[in-house]
Specification:
Helix content: 55-70%
Strand content: under 5%
Order of helices and strands: HHHHHHHHHHHHHHHHHEEH
């Protein structure tokens, strides 16, 4: 039996990742405008399909590769002149750092991310010292994430309308001023808890625009061929700062006080601002901005809703972010209640998870492509590892399991981020990435109270296992949905004496029976 004529085009949705899918687009956009394409020197428009440059890896059946038909997306202006979009596939773990503009951005973020982690630790410690209340610390965290929940989608609309580099200059400067203001108030002895609340909310407001702008700007710096590598290195950058920043903050708090941590964070923004100013505008893969118009927020939501290759990864990270990433709740409970080891064990758990996340980011950078099947496999592995860790009988076994959990969790984040960016029309990328970050970041404040209640009522092991089971169930269900949309079926068999699960094309007979 041979697959039907439409099967190769459909099954590419899951088998080859975002570089080869052909999901239907909503009526307001041309269905061929499903990929990222930077500006070209008078060649293809912004909505053109750059699949060969994104994922040139061979497939088992040449017919699996979806045919590419470059055509402009409705309402998407052609890209301005710039480098060719057919950027070579990444050949090394750090290949995107060969791009000068991205190298400046990366180095600036190394400094800024370290300062950001310093401020997070100092901010929580300051609130705790001012109030003596853990609830007050929770309010501070909630205020910092609240703007993303309330205004995240509107931030994406603004990002699609505005030039990315000047926008980032403004948001980075705003966050620098917030850190400097807190430093002045703290060092002068006039700081009050409402000052910290206001600063946290101000940082959250800046993040509403800064986050989707940074996500979208990466593709403008490196082009589609290096996007997976650049997103992975960004995550490695963040995780490295997660290791260094809290340690430096601890030394500053105990040595000279929290105010100096705020001051260094404010000054750290000089690095990314300088990097943005030193970039060469002519080397950016810039697309023409979306003109101001009515209904752009609804248009973005309709765009995502009509694209299964976008909506299902976003739904998956929503489930995992809400139920699977509540590590502050679980790890503190394990350190205190289960193993009775105190703050030292809590710090150890977080450090090992950060090391795993860093390793996962570097592995993703080396992989070079973002495939939806990798996303599903990593999400299932992430949930399964949480369930296994929940039953760990000893502290050291539990601690060691934090490393693979960090690897799997970071792989989910990077692969989902890259696959969504690569499958999105550049004119829509700000809105789509704002929705992605709102779902992923906004899920934890919603899921944490529920997970915390289960952990308090039934113990850390039940709470941790429940989070893993929900993540596994969501990943398995969404994997089956994507397989069906791609014209694939699950094949169970044995390979070299071991069980093997694969997605294989459905035959014409099977598809006919499925419609009966």
């Amino acid at each position: 039996m041979t697959p039907t004529s439409t099967t190769p085009r459909r099954r590419a949705l899951l088998s080859t990742g975002p570089g080869a899918h052909s999901a239907p687009a909503p009526a307001t956009h041309d269905s061929s405008a499903t990929h990222d394409s930077p500006a070209t020197a008078g060649t293809s428009p912004a909505g053109a399909d750059p699949a060969p440059a994104v994922d040139p890896a061979p497939v088992e059946d040449p017919a699996q590769a979806a045919p590419t038909t470059p055509s402009a997306a409705a309402g998407t202006a052609p890209a301005t002149a710039g480098p060719s979009p057919r950027t070579p596939r990444p050949s090394s773990m750090f290949s995107s750092l060969k791009v000068r503009n991205y190298r400046l951005f990366f180095l600036g973020q190394v400094v800024s991310n370290t300062g950001t982690w310093m401020q997070r630790i100092a901010q929580d410690w300051l609130v705790l010292s001012l109030t003596g209340s853990s609830a007050a610390v929770g309010i501070t965290t909630a205020l910092q994430f609240l703007p993303m929940l309330l205004f995240g989608l509107y931030g994406g609309v603004l990002v699609d309308r505005l030039p990315k580099r000047p926008t980032l200059l403004v948001t980075q400067a705003a966050m620098a001023l917030t850190g400097l203001a807190l430093a002045f108030l703290t060092l002068s002895g006039h700081v009050q808890v409402w000052h910290v609340y206001l600063a946290a909310f101000a940082v959250g407001l800046a993040t509403v625009v800064d986050n989707p702008a940074r996500q979208s700007f990466v593709s403008e710096m490196v082009g589609p061929g290096q996007l997976q590598n650049a997103v992975s290195l960004n995550s490695a950058n963040f995780q490295s700062a997660r290791l260094v920043g809290p340690a430096v903050a601890g030394l500053l708090i105990t040595g000279v006080g929290t105010g100096w941590a705020f001051l260094l964070n404010g000054l750290s923004f000089v690095a990314p601002i300088a990097g943005l100013l030193l970039m060469r505008a002519r080397e950016l893969h810039v697309v023409q901005r979306t003109p101001r118009g009515k209904g752009q927020l609804r248009e973005g939501l309709r765009y995502v809703a009509g694209r299964p290759d976008l909506i299902w990864p976003i739904v998956l990270v929503g489930f995992i972010g809400t139920f699977g990433f509540n590590f502050p709740v679980w790890l503190s409970a394990y350190a205190d209640d289960t193993f009775h080891a105190g703050a030292g064990a809590y710090s150890l758990f977080n450090t090992l998870m950060a090391l795993g996340s860093l390793a996962g980011a570097l592995l993703a950078a080396r992989r070079g492509t973002a495939r939806l099947r990798v996303l599903i496999a990593a999400a299932i592995a992430f949930g399964a590892l949480e369930v296994v860790a929940a039953t760990a009988p000893s502290l050291w076994l539990f601690a060691l399991l934090m490393v693979p959990i960090g690897i799997a969790g970071l792989t989910v984040n990077v692969t989902a981020n890259t696959s969504v960016q690569m499958a999105t029309d550049p004119a829509m990328r700000g809105r789509v990435m704002a929705l992605f970050m709102m779902v992923f970041m906004g899920g934890s404040p919603l899921g944490a109270p529920l997970v915390g209640w289960v952990t308090d009522a039934y113990g850390p092991r039940i709470g941790f296992a429940l989070g893993g089971l929900v993540s596994m169930a969501a990943a398995t269900t969404i994997g089956l949905v994507l397989a069906r949309l791609g014209g694939l079926r699950v094949s169970l068999g044995w390979h070299r004496g071991a069980p093997r699960v694969r997605f294989v094309p459905r035959t014409r007979t099977e598809e006919h029976l499925a419609t009966v």
